[in-house]
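User: Continuing from earlier, I have the next pair ready.

Assistant: Great, send them over.

User: Here they are, in order.

Assistant: Folding the first of the pair now:
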Amino acid sequence: MRVTTTELFRHAYGKYAIGAYNINNLEQAVGLFRGNLGKREKNDEPVDPKTAAPFILQISRGARSYTDKRFLEAIIRTAEEVFPEAIFAVHLDHGTEDVCYDAIDSGLYTSVMIDASDRPFEENVAITRRVVERAHAKGIVVEAELGQLGGVEEDIAASVHLTDPDQAAEFVERTGCDSLAVAIGTSHGAYKFSGPQTVRLDVLAKIQKRLPPGYPLVMHGASSVPKEWVDRINAAGGQIKGSSGVPESDYLEAAKLGVCKINIDTDGRLVWCATYRESFRDKPEDFDPRTPGKVFMKAYASYIIHKNQVLGSAGQLESVRKFIKQQK
C-alpha cells in the first residue's frame, strides 16, 4: 500500500525513524520489499510481525536516468502487487524543479524532494514554494532542504554548511514544505567524517525547538558504512580505504529530536558490491547473472531487517496500518 510520508511521520514522530532506501534495479527492489516484511529468501514467505516495518522507497535522478525511468517505475508498481502487505512511500530524492514536476505527474510518487539548497535563501524559498503548490494540488507531499551536506553521491557534491535554526523556521513557514532535510554534519558517500567529527545533535535540537510541534525532520547521508562490508569488499579485490559512516546509535537519538526519515543509500551499494565481488571471486566459472543476484537479494533483505531494528521501525508495520485506517 502506497502512502504519503506524512502519514508515516505522524506515527513515528519522537519514537522511531523510517528508513528511506534508494534503489536502482530489480534486485534492490526485491530485497528491499522482502526485508521490510521480514522475508529473507522468498517472496511468498510469511510476514514476520517482529521485524516487518513501513519504509520509504527512494529514487534519485541518477536512478531515473540509468536506463529509462519507466523501467524502474514498472518494477515498483509490480513489487506493490507482489508484496501487497507492504506499507511504503515512493519518494523522489534530490529532485530539481523540472524533475519534481515530472514525478508529480507520473502517478507513482507520493512524495518528492526539491533540493534547491545550493541556491541563495530567497531563491530556495521561491522554488520550493512553487513545487509545494504543484504537489499539494495532487495530494503529494514535499521535502525540502536547507543547508548543505558535504561529500559526493552521484551528481551531488558540496561543502558542509550547517542549517541555521532561525532560517529553518522562516523557511518552513514561507514555503509550506511538509518536511525539512537539515544539514547537521553528515555527508553523502562512504567517507562521511574525518577526525573527531560526528552528527551535530546539538544543532538538531535547536532546529527542532524553532519549528512547530511535531514537524518532521530528515537526515540525509546517514549510512553507517559498516566495516564488515567494507572489509569484505576489499578482501574480494576492492579498494575502499578510510571510509566512515554515521554511528547507528545516533539514529534513535536523532529520532527523539524530530528526525522521522533517515536516508540510507551507500550501505545498500556496499552490500551489492561485496556480494557480487565475492561471487565473481568464488565462482569464476559461473557466468549466470542470476547467481550473484540471488545472493545479493537475500543479503540485502537481511541488512534491511537489521537497519529497521536500529531505526526502531522494526515491528511497527501493523501498528502503522491500524493508525492509517483510523486517520481516514
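And the other member of the pair:
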Amino acid sequence: MLFKEDAVARAEHNAVRNNVGWYRWTHDLVEVTGKDAGRLLDYLCVNDIAGAAVGQSKYTTLLNEDGKIIDDTIVTRLEEEKYWVSTLYAPRFQPWLEKQRGDLSVEYKELTWDVDMYAVQGPNALAYINSLLENPVDELKRFRMEDNKVGGVEVKIHRSGFTGENGYEIYCPMGETKKIETALREKESEFDAKELRTLEVYVRALPMEKGFALRQDMYGLTPYDCGLGWSVKLEKDFIGKEALVKAKEEGPKYKLVGVELDPERESYEDICQNEVACYKGIQVGVVRQMIYGYTVDKNIGFAIVDIKHAEKGTVLEVGSHGATVTVCDKNFI
C-alpha cells in the first residue's frame, strides 16, 4: 500500500529538504581486518576498494557469478588493514565473505550491536553538526570519515547520507548513544532542527525523490541496468565479472526506471511492492515500490521494466484495479 500524505511526515520531510533534520539509524556494520582485507573486499565488490585511501569510502555493489546484484554497500577504509562494511544484510554478507575468503589472511566481526549511528541531513547540516563537535568539519569531503568528539565522547564523522542533501553521520559506541542523542536535542531549537521519527520518510520518500534505490529495488539486475555503470571497475577482477562483461556487450534487457502514478486514479492504495506492470495487457515488468513524495507532491516509485517499454512517457497498467503509472527519470527533483 502506498504511503498517504500526512502532516507529520510532511514536516519531517521538509525539515531535511529545506533546513536540517536528524534521526537514529544504524545499518548492519561488519569490520574486516588483516593484510588481505583489501584484496578480498576488492574481489567481492565491483568498485575499487583496495585503492581507497585511509578515511575514504566507496559505494559499490556485490554480484553473484551471473553478474547480478545481490547487495549494495558502502565500504570505508579506516586503516591500512581495517575496513568497515555498512550493509542492511550482515547475516547474508558474512557467509558470502567466508565462502570467498579461502586461505587469505582476513578476519571479520559484526559491530552492529557495538556501534550506533545518527544521521544529520539537510542544507544546514554542517552548521548543526559543527555546533556539537570538538573540531569543525568544514573541510571534510563527501565520502570521507574522520575521528572527532561530541561532548567528550569519541566519535567518527562520516560525510554521507541517504537523502540527497548534504549530510553527516555520527558513529559512536553503543554505550554512549544517549549522550549523542541528548547533544542533538539540546541544539534543536537553536537551528530549528527536527527529529525524524517516520521511517517511510527517511528510508523511502526522501531517497526516492533523489533517485536513491534500495537493495530490494536493484536485486537481480546488473549495475548497468540500474545506472550504476560508473561504479564498475572492469580493469580488476571481481565475482561476476565475466558474466557482467557479456551483459554489457549484449546491452540491457531490463531497466530500473522511475514511475509516477496517474493522479486521476483512486485505486493507488492497491499498488503493492512487486506489483505486476503491464503494457496493453502484457506483463513487461514489476513496480518495486511507491511512496508519496512531499517535495514533488505526487506518488512516485521505482519499477523494473523490459527495455523495450522503458522510454519516458510510456504508460503502464499496474495491478488489477485500473491504476496506471507513467515511466520517468529515477531522479524526480
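Worth noting for the second one:
Residues 54 and 109 are 20 Å apart (CA to CA). The radius of gyration is 21 Å.
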